[in-house]
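INFO batch 0412 | record 1 of 1 | parsing
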Amino acid sequence: MHLRHLLGIQGLNPVSVTAMLDLAENYVLLNRSGKTQRDLLRGRTLINLFFEDSTRTRTSFELAGKRLGADVINMSVSTSSVSKGETLLDTAATLNAMNCDLLVVRHNQSGAPALLAQKVDAAVINAGDGMHEHPTQALLDALTIRRHKGRIAGLTIAICGDIAHSRVARSNLLLLTMMGNFVRVIGPPTLIPAEIAALGVTVHHEMQEGLDGADIVMALRLQKERMTKGLVPSAREFFAFYGLSAEKLTFAKPDALVMHPGPMNRGVEIDSEVADHPTRSLIKEQVEMGVAVRMAVLDTLARRPRWNG
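INFO prediction complete | emitting tokens
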């Protein structure tokens, strides 16, 4: 693969996705062995630039960078010059002067990582931008699925909840349909974009219909920070109709597996009995796969020639 940046799933293809997952699989084994590859990124600098709060994504990128031997810097936007009115382009110029090699960006505006990628020499990784994409989440979800189902093609995958405001949903829809899966989205009409069928998915407004025969069920949280009022009557009512409970999970295949990108709102989009199920829930493993996938991404992008144009 010759990737300059990882800005979205749309920049990938089935061959590059498979190669990334294969590399991540090696890192799963390495991490579980307790060994590291601290010479791979020795002398390289990784900067985590997060304009939005994050626990899993930022921590896993930090851990991934350190396990590969990079010098990792976490920039706190709340205490940086950005909070004093510095523009994104001025921030890009500052970062470029630091000669960093890898820049991980999370921003509340769609397209911000792509803009930075045009202005810095570093390889830019999109860690979530607005309601646009979150490519490493989709990759780690694909790796988790493949490890348990033995493939990442020909599966029926249902994604439930707040589709309209979810960058995780968009990246997963792009990746899973690209790899030849049958993808369904389930939710109230107010939380499903009208144009989503163009992505090659089927739309369902009832859980029983949408979960019927599903191999994988992925629940998404209500992203209230991006919502306008009136889209959902109440959290209790949402759970009654669209929350993933043990009863609703019976509509899927008997061996269907459950996923959630986190953070979870228990009793809203998923029930604790389902989230904590010892054999059907993959939620904890998704976190582990996140470190391995981000190691694979950093490894891949560090191999590309440094851009000087």
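INFO post-check: Residues 14-33 form the longest helix (20 residues).
INFO record closed
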